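#onboarding

Welcome to the new folks! Below is a worked example of what a typical request in this channel looks like: someone posts a single protein sequence, and someone else replies with the predicted structure as tokens. Don't worry about understanding the tokens yet, we'll cover that in week two.

Example request:
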Amino acid sequence: MYYEDEGEGTPVVLITGFSGDTTFFKQLIPEVASKHRVIVFDNRGAGQTEYSGEAFGWQDMVDDVLALLDRLRLFRVHMLGWSMGGHIAQEFAIQHPERLMSLTLVSAYPYRPARSSYFMNGIVDCALRGGDPEYINMMTNAFCFTEDFFAGLEAKGKVLRSLKGLDPKGLKHQMQSLDGFDTRGKLESVSVPTLSIHGLSDIMVEPKLGDYISDRIPGCRVLRIPDAGHIIKPALYQKEFLEHVASHDVQRASLQAGRRRSNPAFGKYSVCASVGQSNTNKR
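Example response:
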């Protein structure tokens, strides 16, 4: 598993969504890393994480997170998940509540929306049949940002960048995992202090699905952001996120820093050769 590790202090784990890689959080990491140790990684099927190429399920993605935390000797962390990463984070909180100090869900859903699944599976299948994989990212961007966002780019003569080098087979496996996600009937068991963040102009995952989650997690805090789509600028929620982390920071940074110093093999830009196994790391 490819991961990046920045900062010092109490650990914060950021989990990206479908097709995303570590660059997704590039605007959020500097602010968080100024106060905390930040771990970000590429899920199976995307980015630089290597995997067997065989199909995998959502439980494998949850287990990957647990394996990475165990490898880094991180026993309790704060966790933020965006979109698919939010569903991984939900399942992690349900299965391993003792490993979390807080949970933050951004643009999250309790089950995959039918419309989004329809078009996302369609564009991945097109790429598998020979289409340019870049269009996967272009089409998902169309559902992730608002009309005002694209109009603003157009007025400036700019075009939104798209991810290069996507693996259609890996993304098909991610979609199969995403289609299997379903935390309905489980959310009431989440005992971790939770913050739910959602854009009110999200058409990929409608705000009512974020409300479904926040209405069922006991004591869940809610932040709803007007005129924001599925991808939300970190500046619009990082203050509330860091306040949420600080209010539940029960594990002192000095303790975590000491553990990190005792394990010098792990550092920024390390790579585990295979997910979920003890492997030699490279820098």
